[in-house]
Design brief:
- The structure is a single chain.
- The chain is of the alpha+beta class.
- The chain folds into two domains: about 10-125, 60s Ribosomal Protein L30, Chain: A, CATH 3.30.1330.10; about 140-310, PurM-like C-terminal domain (Phosphoribosyl-aminoimidazole Synthetase, Chain A, domain 2, Alpha-Beta Complex).
- The chain contains ten helices and 13 strands.
- Helix 2 links the parallel strand 4 (about 65-75) and strand 5.
């Protein structure tokens, strides 16, 4: 979008540059987003359900509630049976029903590489929404799902793992971020994003850049999948992890081993929420997370220097 000036009217609250766009009309604050992914698992039903959870996540990251969606499908009828497409849609429909989000329609194109995702519209009932620009020095940083899915998916595609071996990973990718969104709003979180393709450090950087702050993270407090640790030490990881490291390296300060940094840069699918909150809310947050049955890890703190320090 560099050099372009998209049209924005008086109802535009948030345009290009965050997890979703925000638009107010008739007293309603709308959240709009779009996301799609290529197959990550062999099971088409699971792919459809996980892609749906992934697409909905941006609305939850803004503090919104998804209401309806349009499907975006790339499918090669010559190479794939129609029953495969049907299973993808069945997974999507089931996940949308869980999220109480209405499928209004969609569009399908012939594509050699299958793709599936959703354009999602949601609302912020009280008019309040979160962005990546609200972090303040002295706050704490929390995340709600482990990282390392990209590495595990690569191992799966290379035949080093089966879907039966990664039940916890699949369960987490399938889990909606609705409860996590309610949790962060309950303690007055001031900035939020969901952890997806840019990896944990890439999304940390996005908050730092937009909030004009830095962050200090503690590697041992970051939740990671054990399988991902094993494979990254063997130098098995997706190219996206290297690309994400290139994205953040000029703003990164760390003396950790290389594999730890790559793990934190691993591109995630349907990851958790990453948010900042005031330190005096820590006990309340942990109590609420337990009561709401939301996984939670406090992994660092916001600093004044615009650098990412990983200890």
């Amino acid at each position: 979008m560099e050099g372009l000036s998209p049209y924005a009217d008086e109802h535009t609250l948030l345009s290009v540059g965050d997890d979703a766009g925000v638009y107010e009309y008739g007293g309603v604050v709308w959240v709009h987003t779009l996301d799609f992914i290529t197959p990550i698992l062999n099971d088409p039903y699971l792919w459809g359900a996980i892609s749906t959870a992934n697409s909905l996540s941006d609305v939850y990251a803004m503090g919104g509630i998804p209401l309806n969606a349009l499907a975006i499908v790339g499918f090669n009828n010559c190479d794939l049976e129609l029953d495969v497409f049907r299973e993808v849609m069945r997974g999507a429909v089931d996940k949308l029903r869980e999220a109480k989000t209405v499928l209004l329609g969609g569009h399908t194109i012939d594509d050699k590489e299958p793709k599936f995702g959703l354009a999602v519209a949601g609302v912020c009932p009280d008019g309040r929404y979160l962005t990546q620009s609200g972090a303040r020095p002295g706050q704490l940083v929390a995340v709600t799902k482990p990282v390392g899915t990209g590495i595990i998916i690569k191992a799966l595609k290379e035949g080093l793992l089966s879907e039966e071996d990664i039940g916890e990973v699949i369960e987490n990718m399938l889990r909606l971020n609705d409860k996590a969104s309610e949790l962060m709003k309950s303690v007055g979180a001031t900035s939020c994003t969901d952890v997806t393709g840019f990896g944990l450090l890439g999304h940390v950087y996005n908050i730092c850049r937009n909030s004009d702050v830095g962050m200090r993270l503690f590697f041992e407090k970051v939740p990671v999948y054990e399988e991902a640790v094993d494979f990254v030490k063997k130098k098995l990881f997706p190219k996206g992890a290297r690309d994400n490291h290139s994205f953040v390296k000029d703003y990164l300060r760390s003396e950790l081993e290389w594999w730890k940094i790559i793990l934190l840069c691993d591109p995630v699918t349907s990851g958790g929420l990453l948010f900042t909150f005031e330190p005096n809310k820590k006990e309340e947050l942990e109590r609420e997370a337990k009561d709401r049955r939301v996984s939670l890890w406090i992994i660092g703190e916001v600093t004044g220097e615009r650098m990412i320090e990983v200890l």
